Amino acid sequence: xxxxxxxxxxxxxxxxxxxxxxxxxxxxxxxxxxxxxxxxxxxxxxxxxxxxxxxxxxxxxxxxxxxxxxxxxxxxxxxxxxxxxxxxxxxxxxxxxxxxxxxxxxxxxxxxxxxxxxxxxxxxxxxxxxxxxxxxxxxxxxxxxxxx
Length: 148
Known about the structure:
Layout: H1 6-19, H2 28-35, H3 39-51, E1 55-58, E2 62-65, H4 67-89, H5 95-105, H6 111-120, H7 144-147
Antiparallel strand pairs: 1-2
Helix pairs in contact: 1-2, 1-3, 1-4, 2-3, 4-5, 4-6
């Protein structure tokens, strides 16, 4: 699959984030509310993610990401959080503004730029808000309570 569209990345990221809040499939209405779209729009895109092999979608039951869909989500999350860290640490942008900037830029940075940002920042494990940044292998750093 070529680089996913912004919409596909946004839906994968939303499904991933919602799935971290509770077990089970993510409901269409939850995705619609998170992305501020109509339930019909969310349903249409969830079907498309299913067709692309990025999600397992069951009508009236919801969606779960496939391993390929999780990879898309974690990649865009990595981009987002690295951008937030860069804007905050390297450029001194106030923390209340970095999220909105990262929302736009996360779709456009190359893998080369991602690596440069990560190296410049010393491979950070967390963004300015304290949220874990997936590593280059797209795994999340262990939580403090898991390392003990």
